[in-house]
Specification:
- The protein is elongated and about 75 Å long.
- It contains 9 helices and 7 strands.
- The chain has 2 domains: 112 residues, Winged helix-like DNA-binding domain superfamily/Winged helix DNA-binding domain (Arc Repressor Mutant, subunit A); 165 residues, GAF domain (Beta-Lactamase, 2-Layer Sandwich), CATH 3.30.450.40.
- The longest helix is centred in the middle third of the chain and has 30 residues.
């Protein structure tokens, strides 16, 4: 007896729901619903059943997509893989229907068949990685919003990744707006606290490489004037010391950045206040350090590396 996991090529003699098609002779696209183009959603036969919900009855849902998602969810619960029969049973599908969908999902890279069982493919793993990254960013954004409300200032989170300064998330309000990026943050790291803090965490070779690509240039009368002076300043600051900057990037704004290092990734959490409120910067920085220390100790702050 042939195994149910070795379906013959003619399994297409069933309709998308797995029901046997009656009548003599080979099945036709009109009798089983086209598998490509518009036929994926409806048969060419007038009045034939459709995967799409009837017009005017709730949202339009595509049944084939729903069934495929149930198969993917079932496959995801089996790290070591599962045979078609088991996946069909767990997804509540007829076996021939499951075979149609498994073949399609495998062709598109969402599943992969190994030694008679189906496991998640590269495409599904990319979706999973993307979702995890989105979750991390959402969590970081929520944390920054909490600090923004608790301290009463705009809060920034940034990384140094692939040789560039990357602003990952910013939390501000209309009453306490973030610094306007009037000059590209990636190219002006020497001028703002975020860039100075990130570059201070790098070794000398990485710093010089960054400055070769993004040379020091004056943005305000307070901006450092040349590479040599800037490198000396970084040496004096130290890798894990908070950095403050007074109107070096933008007139009317003062900033502070606290270093955060996880593995080999340099990161920072920063704040800014108007220069007219410069006296708030030091106490706000101390409060942020305390809050950041609590969060890191509880492992509640996840940094995407």
């Amino acid at each position: 007896m042939a195994s149910v996991d070795d379906a013959p090529p003619d399994v297409q003699s069933t309709d998308p729901e797995g029901r046997a098609i009656s009548g003599e002779g080979p099945s036709t696209p009109a009798s089983r619903g086209l598998l490509t183009g518009r036929g994926l959603l409806a048969s060419n036969t007038p009045g034939a059943p459709s995967d799409a919900a009837p017009a005017g009855v709730g949202p339009t849902l595509i049944g084939s997509v729903q069934r495929a998602m149930r198969l993917l969810e079932a496959a995801a619960t089996h790290p070591g893989g599962a045979p078609a029969k088991q996946l069909a049973r767990e997804a509540g599908l007829a076996l021939p229907t499951a075979y149609h969908l498994l073949r399609t999902l495998s062709h598109e890279g969402y599943l992969r068949r190994e030694k008679g069982v189906f496991v998640l493919g590269d495409a599904a793993e990319r979706l999973s990685a993307g979702a995890a990254e989105q979750n991390r960013r959402a969590m970081i954004g929520e944390t920054l919003e909490y600090w923004r409300d608790a301290i009463g200032v705009p809060v920034y989170f940034a990384l140094y990744r692939d040789g560039e300064i990357e602003i990952v998330s910013v939390a501000d309000t209309a009453g306490n707006p973030a610094v306007e990026e009037w000059a590209d943050f990636r190219e002006t790291g020497h001028a703002h606290a975020i860039g100075q803090c990130l570059l201070a965490q790098l070794d000398d070779a990485a710093r010089r490489d960054h400055l070769d690509r993004h040379p020091v240039r004056s943005l305000t009368p307070n901006t450092v004037r040349d590479d040599r002076t800037f490198l000396r300043r970084l040496e004096a600051v130290g890798r894990m010391t908070p950095v403050t900057e007074h109107q070096e990037y933008a007139l009317g704004t003062v900033c502070a950045a606290i270093p955060v290092t996880v593995g080999s990734t340099a990161a920072t959490v920063a704040i800014s206040v108007p220069s007219s409120q410069a006296s708030r910067l030091a106490p706000a920085t101390r409060l942020l350090q305390e809050e950041l220390g609590k969060l890191l100790r509880t492992l509640a702050f996840s940094i995407s590396i």
